[in-house]
Specification:
Length: 137
């Protein structure tokens, strides 16, 4: 997937990354996820359990990533909260142009109000925009 070259963006290779992060000793959101999402075009992740609360913490960065043309592929277990299930159930199989347009507006709003969007709202917008490919195993 091609991405426009913006002046504010740096490549992933240009950043000095920590050798490792331990959740209790580091702010993984600000030390890793936010700077990585600002520079990435593809985000692949396999997790044992998935909750949209991840998007509560990274919603604005994830929304900006999607609007720049970023794509996320996620493989996870099917254990979901009721809000997550509802967001997934309402998502259409293939985002049409109207749903994608509304989702783009939603993602732009999420980027303008960091921390204001709940995780399920970000999840739904990413799905409707077509930036998230979610597989449950």
């Amino acid at each position: 997937m091609a991405r426009e070259n913006n002046d504010y963006e740096e490549s992933l290779r240009s950043r000095l990354w920590p050798d490792g992060l331990t959740t209790g000793d580091a702010d993984t959101i600000d030390d890793f996820y936010r700077p990585a999402l600002e520079r990435a075009v593809l985000y692949d992740r396999a997790v044992g359990y998935f909750r949209s609360t991840f998007y509560l913490l990274t919603g604005d960065a994830m929304a900006a990533f999607a609007l720049r043309g970023g794509a996320m592929r996620l493989v996870c277990s099917p254990e979901l909260t009721a809000d997550d299930f509802d967001a997934l159930r309402k998502q259409t199989t293939t985002p049409d142009e109207i749903a994608r347009s509304f989702a783009a507006t939603e993602l732009a709003e999420i980027t303008s109000t960091p921390g204001a969007a709940d995780g399920a709202r970000v999840l739904r917008a990413l799905l409707d925009f077509g930036a998230l490919d979610l597989r449950m195993v």
